[in-house]
Design a protein that fits this description.
The protein has about 475 residues and is α/β, with parallel strands linked by helices. The protein is built from 14 helices and 11 strands. Helix 3 runs antiparallel to helix 12 (about 350-385). It has 3 domains: about 5-75, dopa decarboxylase, N-terminal domain (Up-down Bundle), CATH 1.20.1340.10; about 100-345, Type I PLP-dependent aspartate aminotransferase-like (Major domain) (Aspartate Aminotransferase, domain 2), CATH 3.40.640.10; about 365-470, Aspartate Aminotransferase, domain 1, CATH 3.90.1150.10. The protein has a 7-stranded mixed sheet with strand order 1-7-6-5-4-2-3, sandwiched between helices. A 4-stranded antiparallel sheet has the order 8-9-11-10.
Length: about 475
């Protein structure tokens, strides 16, 4: 493909992209396909001879698009959003066009310096301490792993990196029973072992109980184990519960534990001054992560990770073979030493585009509106017969279940809600996910897509409620 052909095809694609953004609500939010339906339409082997772009794009429209879940659909209320926005998409186009590998300042000076400035912007926008230094990781899962590895090396003066584990390292990591599953994965990858992950009890609002954390730490010390790290959460995945990070931070300081705060979804809400009660005590934390690719309209992947002790982070991950040495090494941030991968994408560009396009005030307006939609939904659930609110709604996620009075056992209520969820997701109109709270099935409704408005929430809830009642025999 020459540049003239590229130019023509690119114009066609941009027209299609703009149409898609305008028309995404006309697609079924989840595709009506079965496992294997897409693969059987694809040839068994790669083509021997070149194929035309027209043919490739036609197959995209006829094979790939009908098998996609549309995450930007106005009826997408599942998981947490993986938002994008027009400025973010445009920045990704530029990033892909330049094709830069941004591992060192020397490999792309503008990429390193823009990332440094964007992390300062984000730190100040969220009201984080000035002592925090930031770097963009790919996901919060990787960021939590980075924290656990840094805690491990800092505690052992970087000896495990040098000699490996010995029987002396009987580390323990703590999170709540509502902590994200990535913590489980990360303690395994870090060599600490899943049996050494302690799940701390939560209160009636599903937030970690500090007294129970301290009890677990004291017991482990008495048993000859080594408390290493606590992962607290601002906005758990199941219900957006808010752990009391100030009390947890004080406990960590008292017992010399690393404190990592996972605010991957809810952290974006800290751009609202009225929501910073959630992060009270953040200055006591050692590290903090939130994902602009969830709720700040910056498409995947872009995870903002902050640390108090940048040197501990660098000491954990730094590798300096001769072929990576540059004259500027002592004057700049070489972000290849700030995380797991050596190679790095130019993620800061899309952040720059998004923040400048919306401005802080525009971002605040959208986030504030989404929280208001969540509160509207909470009131609807509380006042609608036959449904039950299952958790507090501090943000824009509401957990509920249908609970008609004619069912006598929790098992029957669970089965009913699973049946309702299956029917809702087959409809193509809405997409929800489920969780378990107090060992009861709960349906999750998240109101947070980039272009979501109250009308989408109202229509979505009306469809959900009518569908649920039709199954409930209420």
């Amino acid at each position: 493909m020459n540049t003239n052909e590229f130019r023509n095809h690119a114009h066609d694609l941009v027209d299609w992209m703009a149409d898609y953004l305008e028309q995404v609500g006309e697609y079924p939010v989840t595709p009506p396909v079965n496992p294997g339906d897409i693969k059987k339409q694809l040839p068994n082997a790669a083509p021997l001879h070149p194929e035309s772009f027209e043919s490739i794009f036609q197959d995209f429209r006829s094979i790939i698009l009908p098998g996609m879940t549309h995450w930007q659909h106005p009826g997408f209320f599942a998981y947490f959003p993986a938002n994008n926005s027009e400025p973010s998409i445009l920045a990704e186009m530029l990033t892909a066009t330049m094709g830069a590998q941004c591992m060192l300042w020397f490999t792309s000076p503008a990429a390193e310096e823009l990332e440094e400035r964007m992390m300062e912007w984000l730190r100040d926008m969220l009201g984080l301490p000035s002592g925090f230094t930031g770097v963009i990781q790919d996901t919060a899962s990787s960021s939590t792993l980075v924290s656990i590895l840094t805690a491990r090396e800092y505690r052992t003066r970087y000896e495990i990196n040098r000699r490996g584990f010995t029987p002396e390292e009987k580390f323990r990591v703590y999170t709540s029973t509502q902590g994200h599953s990535s913590v489980d994965k990360d303690v395994k990858i870090a060599g600490i072992g899943i049996e050494n992950l302690v799940k701390v009890e939560v209160n009636e609002e599903f937030a970690m109980i500090p007294a129970k954390l301290e009890e677990a730490i004291q017991k482990d010390i008495a048993d000859g184990l080594v408390p290493l790290c606590v992962v607290s959460t601002i906005g758990t995945t199941s219900s957006t519960a808010i752990d009391p990070v100030e009390e947890i931070g004080a406990i960590c300081q008292r017992y010399n534990l690393w404190h990592h705060i996972d605010a991957s979804y809810a952290g974006t809400a800290l751009i609202l001054p009225e929501m910073r009660w959630m992060s009270k005590g953040v200055e006591l934390a050692d590290s903090f992560v939130f994902n602009p690719h969830k709720w700040m309209f910056t498409n995947f992947d872009c995870s903002a990770y902050f640390v108090q002790d940048r040197q501990a982070l660098i000491n954990t991950f730094s590798i300096l073979p001769d072929y990576l040495k540059t004259p500027e090494d002592k004057q700049v941030n070489n972000y290849r030493d700030w995380g797991i991968p050596l190679g790095r994408r130019f993620r800061a560009l899309k952040l720059w585009f998004v923040i400048r396009t919306y401005g802080i005030s525009g971002l605040q307006e959208k986030i504030r509106s989404h929280i208001q939609y969540g509160q509207w939904l909470k009131e609807e659930i509380l006042t609608s017969p036959g449904v039950e609110l299952m958790a507090p709604v501090p943000l824009n996620l509401a957990c509920f279940r249908f609970s008609p009075g004619n069912l006598t056992s929790e098992k029957e209520v669970d089965a009913l809600n699973e049946k309702i969820l299956e029917q809702l997701n087959k409809s193509g109109n809405v997409f929800l996910t489920q969780t378990r709270l107090n060992d009861k099935v709960a349906l999750r409704f998240v109101a947070g897509q980039t272009h979501t408005c109250l009308d989408h929430i109202q229509k979505g809830w009306d469809f959900i409620y009518k569908t649920g009642l039709s199954f409930s025999d209420y």
